[in-house]
Amino acid sequence: IGLILYGLGTFSEAFLGLTYSPFVLRVWYITGAMLTAAWLGHGTLYLLARKRGNHVHRFLAGNCSPAIAGNRHAAGATVISALTPVVKHGILRTII
């Protein structure tokens, strides 16, 4: 999951470097700015602590459902938020 989010965030940032798109900006904000670090950290913790008898597995499994719910909430809030265009020094910028 983390690697897919990282790839989407990187692609959308490269795309936004070439041209502007409100949809791609939202994709970047959700994947690149909010969710990638959490999911990559979750996977790293899983890989580092996968010894038998370790209670980290239960901890990660128990925290996965709230993490997914938080991801849905953050993504939903980003999708419905208004984009505010700002022109600064002749360059169009967008603030979420």
Overview of the structural elements:
By secondary structure, this protein is mainly α. It is 72% helix and 10% strand. The protein contains three helices and two strands; from the N terminus they run H-H-H-E-E. The protein has helices spanning 2-18, 22-48, 56-80, and strands at residues 84-88, 91-95. It has a two-stranded antiparallel ribbon. A hairpin with a 2-residue loop joins strand 1 (84-88) and strand 2. Helix 1 runs antiparallel to helix 2 and helix 2 (22-48) runs antiparallel to helix 3 (56-80). The chain starts with a helix and ends with a strand. The mean pLDDT is 75.
Number of helices: 3
Strand order of the largest sheet: 1-2
- pLDDT averaged over residues: 75
Q: How many E-type strands?
A: 2
Distance between the termini: 25 Å
Assembly of the depicted chains: single chain
* Classification by helices and strands: mainly alpha
**Main sheet makeup:** 2 strands, antiparallel
Helix percent reads over 70%
Order of helices and strands: HHHEE
- Provide the β-strand percentage band: 5-15%
Low-confidence stretches: none
What is Rg? 17 Å
Backbone shape:
elongated
Task: Describe this protein with a few key phrases.
96 residues, mainly alpha
Topology:
Blueprint: H1 2-18, H2 22-48, H3 56-80, E1 84-88, E2 91-95
Helix pairs in contact: 1-2, 2-3
Entry summary:
The chain has 96 residues and is mainly alpha-helical. It has 3 helices and 2 strands, in the order αααββ. Helix 1 (2-18) packs antiparallel against helix 2 and helix 2 runs antiparallel to helix 3.
